[in-house]
Amino acid sequence: MSKKIFISCDEATTICNKSQYKEASFLEIVKLKIHLFSCKICGAYSKQNATLTKVCSKHLHKTQGERKLCKEEKEALQKEVVKKINSNT
Amino acid sequence: MSDENKHSLEPNNWVKEYSDYLYNYTITRIDNHEQAKDIVQETFFSALKAAKNYRGQASERTWLIAILKRKIIDHYRKINSRKGKAEIKVNFHEDGDKKGSWLEERVPQLWDNEAEKQIENTELKSVLDNCINNLPDKYRLVFNLKNVEHYETEEICNELDITASNLWVIIHRARHQLRKCMEDNWFAK
Asked: Residues in domain RNA polymerase sigma factor 70 region 4 type (chain B) (predicted)?
């Protein structure tokens, strides 16, 4: 991240994205606020991005429970492994 | 360590003992069944090749997981080099006077005033899923680790062998594309 206090829209939206995960630094947030003060486009982006974060936390969830291979897949896998074992010895 | 305490390898039992564990580990990181299955198989194959170097200090499972982790990094590198920048649209001027400012056609459009109220909508969920599925592989993978699995930045960087700034560039681009996709398919209508 650049040292200057005035940042581009590209940099501003990068900070905006980082801040959605609460991982933007204090200095970055200050730079973002200064940028938003004079940039309406990034202001709109920032607001929509916050909505996007809400949508994601509402609708995206970890799959519950362990995902497994089915019996047939395991049998096929076992065959392949045994084949390899025998070809190595 | 005495010989009795050392772990040993039983390749004939690997599939029975560890395939579910390895598959589950892989599928949360690579959300594609066929690819995850292949990676588990490759892990067993590489493990067989490396078996003569196994010293028995780590348990069989720990040793297999270490090999699997390497495979996941390799997979990630492969999708990373195969499908580079070209797949994700650029949002900002890349050089000249306007470097870093919005490209006109990528400027966010006004959203429906009711946007906030629609968050609960279940149809919105399927639009979101579609938009995520349309992200290029490497973007989807990192986005999901962050937003679905809620991994720490450092963890993702270690697992995929990328730097934090790489990660933020990826998240940045993924979210730009996602915002645009949600706008086109839902919020701007």
From this structure: 128-177
Which chain B residues are Cβ-neighbours of A7 within 8 angstroms?
100
- Domain match, B114 and B136 both: yes
What pLDDT is stored for residue A28 in this prediction?
Answer: 96
Residue B178: domain span? 86-187
Residues B90, B78 share a domain = no
Q: Is A3 on the interface with B (CB under 8 A)?
A: no
**Cβ(A42)–Cβ(A35) below 8 Å:** yes
A70 Cβ under 8 Å from any chain B Cβ: no
Please check whether residues B33 and B119 belong to one and the same domain.
Answer: no
A43 backbone dihedrals φ, ψ, rounded to 5°: -60, -45
B90 and B182 inside one domain: yes
pLDDT one digit per residue (tens) for chain B, 189 residues? 455 567 888 999 999 999 999 999 999 888 889 999 999 999 999 999 998 888 888 899 999 999 999 999 999 888 877 655 446 778 999 989 999 999 998 999 988 877 778 888 889 999 999 999 999 888 999 999 999 989 999 999 998 999 999 999 999 999 999 999 999 998 885
Residues B166 and B102 in one domain: yes
B63 and B136 within one domain: no
Closest CB from A17, A18, A41 relative to B108: A41
B90 and B64 in one domain?
no
